[in-house]
Amino acid sequence: MSDITRIALDAMGGDNAPTEMIKGAVWAVNENADMKVFLVGKEEILRRELQKQTYDPERIEIVNADEVIETSEPPVNAIRRKKDSSIVVGMKMVRNKEADAFVSAGNSGAVLVGGQVLIGKIKGVERTPLAPLIPTKDGVSLLIDCGANVDARSSHLVQFAQMGSIYMEHVVGIKDPKVGIVNIGAEEEKGNALVKETFPLLKEAKGIRFIGSVESREIPRGQADVIVCEAFVGNVILKLYEGVGSVLIQKIKEGLLSTFISKVGAALAKPALKSTLKSFDASEHGGAPMLGLQGLVVKTHGNAKAKEVRNTLKQCVLFKKQKIDEKIRECIQNREEAAE
Amino acid sequence: MSDITRIALDAMGGDNAPTEMIKGAVWAVNENADMKVFLVGKEEILRRELQKQTYDPERIEIVNADEVIETSEPPVNAIRRKKDSSIVVGMKMVRNKEADAFVSAGNSGAVLVGGQVLIGKIKGVERTPLAPLIPTKDGVSLLIDCGANVDARSSHLVQFAQMGSIYMEHVVGIKDPKVGIVNIGAEEEKGNALVKETFPLLKEAKGIRFIGSVESREIPRGQADVIVCEAFVGNVILKLYEGVGSVLIQKIKEGLLSTFISKVGAALAKPALKSTLKSFDASEHGGAPMLGLQGLVVKTHGNAKAKEVRNTLKQCVLFKKQKIDEKIRECIQNREEAAE
């Protein structure tokens, strides 16, 4: 296998495509010698944008795809019908081993469906969770699952804990990551039916460091590195994080600008404040990997800019170097053998 | 029925009992001519504390209760065994019509269990939700249910929507409140099994103004006045609100104090900032009512101080004046008759 990580980037997906996608790709290849990016999308448009940039032409290549799946399109239909869309073309490159990873800021549903249908799961993996990194007080945690797998079963959650631990240890670099399950109280007897069923399975599961229940109040404080929950709850957590954060920051801005004196104060405090808030910004940490597939798929925020794209592309390199696919395959197989 | 609202206050419950409970009670009766507060707890301790205060002795009375249910105690056992606890004694006053309402900052589980077991539900009410008010960008929304009813059914959620609408309209004063169901996307076809089943029932339900799905990102922006969800999700939302808010404010403080210049700026901006953040503080809005009981029960935050206690006691007066119990009874009966 080559030492170069080949990444298919959906150059047409997201609010800021193609400009920010292209900028992010150029930024990433200029920083990393071990990466090649395929910009997937409408060739003419991409070529025009790319001409404005300075980069090694060996390391960025355009792959034509004439169609675009819009954010509002029903995913299953879109994947089936738009065979020449940037998402379908990029995913097929991963399936055909022409690329190691696919990155998109486009239609989330289409990315999730495409991953399962076009790339396929690792043998033994029951569900393929989408696992974004969320900012915490002093670092970052992996929230798994935030994807489309609502009404999951306990066995799915155990696999999420295992795959998430592998990712946090080898891609994010947290040694022996702490795994917690989202619950409504700290005690083992608390919870809904799914959590009560999953709790003892996580206690017994090998290869993870299970610390028990995590109340959502403790998530931003970084109580666990891998936060396990089913996708409905994960989606609520992810979006509420964003909602509370943005409303609070907006209110603080209004407060700072409400009087003349406070405006002066705000001007003085701004640089220091900005750098602290940056550490609580999800886009600093790159996109959300979809785990358990035969190849890597990463979904970035719909409003991703060049920096998030560049950070995500770097994540892909680490994912390949650390052989995350193989580690997940081994972990799931060991578990299946143990169960036989 | 008397025009005075009689409220049994658990003077022993919560982190700041009894001092802040007593201060809150004195504050409230000194402001409201139409309220009488029974301080339920250890008589000797309460009498000593009360002596420090100035108030009309006709309007505050001590009711002795020798036991205290601790925050960590298993609720069902505690309610069964500690018959002379402030929670059990106060709840029985409501059951025996000696009080119109019971307010506690103590063991949440015991308050929830006690409400159901000792006071009992209004006929036709299937579950009794706990419904805190949460701050939003420009006001407040009712999050219903955050109680102990995990794994709820769709018919429960419809009743939550109806009871919550009555509360928001007549106690909080929001005319024709908007009702939304917590979901992972804006479209009707999205969601888990419970949400998909509940959505059409809410569309058909009479007496409410259903606006559809609310993604959690939109909750802090105030998209709906009544936010319907089952208790597991509600609990996650409530505690995450608190967690993200407190971590973010802590980070902002650190940022403001990180350099000399920013410290000067922070000092200038402080008063304006403080008043904005206050509007995003849940304790400003009083406690969480438990709806659908034959009498009112309100749970305040465990760390409630005098101000929250005072605001909660005022809420109880409004609850009685607006005859919320009767309105809920009528609404549920109408629905039952319509279904027959």
Automatic annotation (TrEMBL), chains A, B:
Subunit structure: Homodimer. Probably interacts with PlsY.
Species in which this protein is naturally found: Suipraeoptans intestinalis
UniProt GO molecular function: phosphate:acyl-[acyl carrier protein] acyltransferase activity
Upper classification of the organism: Bacteria, Bacillati, Bacillota, Clostridia, Lachnospirales
Keywords: Acyltransferase, Cytoplasm, Lipid biosynthesis, Lipid metabolism, Phospholipid biosynthesis, Phospholipid metabolism, Transferase
GO cellular component, one term: cytoplasm
Function text: Catalyzes the reversible formation of acyl-phosphate (acyl-PO(4)) from acyl-[acyl-carrier-protein] (acyl-ACP). This enzyme utilizes acyl-ACP as fatty acyl donor, but not acyl-CoA.
Pfam families membership: FA_synthesis
GO BP terms in the entry: fatty acid biosynthetic process; phospholipid biosynthetic process
Annotated compartments: Cytoplasm
E.C. no: 2.3.1.274
Annotated InterPro entries: FA_synthesis, Phospholipid_synth_PlsX-like
PANTHER family: FATTY ACID/PHOSPHOLIPID SYNTHESIS PROTEIN PLSX (PTHR30100), PHOSPHATE ACYLTRANSFERASE (PTHR30100:SF1)
Pathway: Lipid metabolism; phospholipid metabolism
Catalytic activity: a fatty acyl-[ACP] + phosphate = an acyl phosphate + holo-[ACP]
Name the record gives this protein: Phosphate acyltransferase
Alphabetized NCBIfam families for the sequence: plsX (TIGR00182)
Enzyme kind, highest EC tier: transferase
Protein origin, superkingdom: Bacteria
Family as reported in the entry's similarity comment: Belongs to the PlsX family.
